[in-house]
Amino acid sequence: MESLSASVDDGVHGGGGVPLLVEHSRNVFARPGIRGHRIVPDGDDVSVGRDWSPRFLIDSEPRIQGGVMTMEASDGLCGLHLTTVLETLPGGTLRIRHILRNVAQGTYVLDGLEVSVPLLDRQTEIL
To answer: Which of 35, 51, 72, 107 has its CA 20 to 30 A from that of 22?
Structure first.
């Protein structure tokens, strides 16, 4: 877990970190890891389609407890808070979860929230 924390830390400070959530706001034009938008009542009208491209910034140093590392990030402009949890399991398995919270006015319609697992070309993912 320490080497995983160091890898995340490098990404925070401008190193060669690899994102676990693909974001359009970071000039990655593959399928985004978060797909959604905000609906906000605006008087007699309704404003739709806002906040479709969040840019999350890490709020604090990752917390490590046992085999679990938790990272908190947020986008104040979009009003979204993201918690990412990495957990080592018996047998060498790694579980990764994203938890998204709406912290702004209006409804955030979440169409998809996916983890990106960085693998080399010669590696495969078995689900």
So the answer is: 107
